[in-house]
């Protein structure tokens, strides 16, 4: 069966399920999108790695990567191989230098691992034709900026309130947010610092 390569094109707060997120995967050579509802922990784990943020302590998926690297195991690819009753089934294709092993995983965990190992994500035509959405023009809007993933979920300090703080105060708050694992707030502070560097 021919595999179809996917990229992460969006991550946003789910409008249909409270406390959940919509991860949107896009067909690399086409216009179809595959939306997958995932939990907040997995959404945060994906966002942190995409944004190249460093948590104060390793998250579960970081631990998985460290363990794999310690034993010379790489994840070569992720395959979303089935869809049953609205549930996606995925597997990690791992290689230790001698043999290839396929490990079953929740799709959200598989994607969180894939961004850490920088490995490709694939699915099959029957899954895209069943659950995919065809994009015509700009009819389907998705978030390219992963920082916005939890703005609707957590009432936190508005980004505008950071403008009155000095660079040193912002850096202190950034470290505090990271130590408290308040990654949404940390992303907003980082954006304000980056905006100042650019201007």
From TrEMBL:
InterPro entries: BFN_sf, Bi_nuclease_dom, UVR_dom. This is Bifunctional nuclease family protein. Residues 3-135 form the BFN domain. The lineage of its organism: Bacteria, Pseudomonadati, Bacteroidota, Sphingobacteriia, Sphingobacteriales.
């Amino acid at each position: 069966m021919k595999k179809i390569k996917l990229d992460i094109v969006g991550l946003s707060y789910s409008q249909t399920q409270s406390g959940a997120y919509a991860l949107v995967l896009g067909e690399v050579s086409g216009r179809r999108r595959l939306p997958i509802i995932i939990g907040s922990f997995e959404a945060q784990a994906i966002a942190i790695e995409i944004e190249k943020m460093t948590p104060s302590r390793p998250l579960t998926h970081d631990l998985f990567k460290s363990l794999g690297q310690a034993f010379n195991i790489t994840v070569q690819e992720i395959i979303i191989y089935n869809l049953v009753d609205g549930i996606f089934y995925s597997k990690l294709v791992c290689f230790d230098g001698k043999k290839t092993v396929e490990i079953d995983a929740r799709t959200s965990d598989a994607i969180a691992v894939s961004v850490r190992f920088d490995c490709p994500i694939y699915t099959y035509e029957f899954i895209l034709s069943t659950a995919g959405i065809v994009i015509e023009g700009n009819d389907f809007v998705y978030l390219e900026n992963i920082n916005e993933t939890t703005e609707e979920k957590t009432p936190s300090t508005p980004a505008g309130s950071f403008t009155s703080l000095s660079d040193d105060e912002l850096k202190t708050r950034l470290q505090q947010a990271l130590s408290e694992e308040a990654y949404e707030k940390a992303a907003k502070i980082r954006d304000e610092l980056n905006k100042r560097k650019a201007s």
